[in-house]
Design brief:
This protein has 15 helices and 10 strands. By secondary structure, the protein is an alpha/beta fold. The strands form 2 sheets. It has a 5-stranded parallel β-sheet with strand order 2-1-3-4-5, with helices on both faces. It has a 5-stranded parallel β-sheet with strand order 7-6-8-9-10, with helices on both faces. Helix 2 runs antiparallel to helix 9, helix 8 packs antiparallel against helix 15 and helix 10 crosses helix 15. The mean pLDDT is 93.
């Protein structure tokens, strides 16, 4: 048996995403059937429960819920149930538990508790046979296939797409904004390769990275920081573009590497002044997204343009490749980051 090449699994899984997206869009009817049940129950509020990368996907779903459904949405703090035993009244509330593995005990307990307290519960997982799916009343199968690298790539982006298709179907949409994502993902991976290589070269020796974005792109900034930290062991910190100007910008200087996520739309437009300020302080700014050519940056990584609400599904792809490339360039193996396991069990 041949020896494992560092990063081979993560590279293959990044490359699989165009097919994963196309397959998931083709199964939209399955997700629409779940949405029909939710719509009939007319929830007054939405709560989202998740950990790690899935927490960033849940934040994306929060934006979708508040903007597209015009419903209030919040992120669950699992410890309120698991450590403190809180039992709020959740009648007429939709609780969506997001977990790639569906195996985290705290999310399982939160889901069971929420269902017992009257919530309509939905599990969004990549493991159809998981305990979480069994605990929830309804389930959405992400369908990304087995992911062997520890760092989540295809499962994260496919979870975003599944959540978009779910929310869009609840509002009566037909998934049109997601219809071409398979082809757009392939184009993004191909057209961004040179800029990704340059970003790896620029960031190879940095110790500190700041990531930033606004609106729908904030979850991508958070996921980017996590990927850089877990694969390349960088001190990576994510900020909303709005929060960045409220104080943290004082720590930005010529030694600061800034990865800014800026796609076409209101969120990207709101980043212009932020990046003017950061660029003016001498920071090395790499802008990622379909709006990257409109902001102050030293390097721009292009992403295919889409409707703003689905942009995060594409804009994370080149960032995954940056994390992969940096890990290898710094002597690591992004398939097996030190101290990490594929499934993290917390309570």
């Amino acid at each position: 048996m041949s020896e494992h090449q560092p990063g081979a699994h993560m590279a293959a899984e990044i490359a699989e995403q165009p097919r994963v997206f196309a397959d998931l869009v083709a199964r939209r009817h399955e997700i629409a059937s779940v949405a029909e049940v939710i719509s009939a129950r007319r929830p007054r509020f939405v709560l989202l429960a998740a950990r790690g990368s899935s927490d960033h996907a849940a934040l994306y779903a929060k934006y979708l819920t508040e903007v597209l459904l015009q419903l209030p949405a919040g992120l669950v703090s699992p410890s309120t149930a698991t450590l403190y035993g809180a039992q709020p009244d959740l009648r007429d509330v939709l609780v969506v538990s997001v977990s790639q593995s569906g195996g985290s005990p705290d999310l399982l307990e939160v889901t069971e508790s929420a269902r017992a307290r009257g919530a309509l519960t939905v599990a969004v997982t990549n493991t159809a046979s998981s305990p979480l799916n069994g605990a929830a009343e309804l389930s959405v199968d992400v369908g990304a296939g087995v992911e062997r690298a520890v760092a989540a790539t295809k499962t994260y982006s496919a979870t975003l797409l599944a959540l978009y298709l779910l929310v869009d179907a609840i509002r009566g949409g037909n998934g049109a904004a997601a219809g071409a994502l398979g082809d757009q993902a392939a184009a993004t991976l191909e057209q961004s390769s040179d800029a990704v290589a340059e970003a790896v070269r620029r960031y190879r020796f940095v110790d500190r990275v700041l990531t930033t974005g606004r609106g729908y792109s904030l979850p991508t900034a958070l996921e980017s920081a996590l990927k850089l930290a877990e694969t390349s062991y960088l001190a990576a910190r994510a900020y909303s573009g709005a929060d960045l100007l409220h104080g943290p910008v004082a720590a930005v200087d010529a030694e600061t590497a800034v990865l800014a996520v800026t796609s076409t739309g209101r969120g990207g437009d709101a980043m212009h002044d932020v990046l003017d300020a950061v660029h003016g302080r001498g920071a090395d700014v790499v802008a990622v997204g379909s709006g990257a050519d409109k902001v102050s940056a030293a390097l721009r990584i292009p992403v295919a343009e889409t409707a703003e609400e689905v942009a995060p599904i594409l804009e994370v792809l080149p960032v995954q490749r940056v994390a992969h490339g940096l890990s290898l360039a710094r002597g690591g193996d992004p398939d097996s980051p030190r101290g990490l396991n594929k499934v993290t069990r917390t309570r």
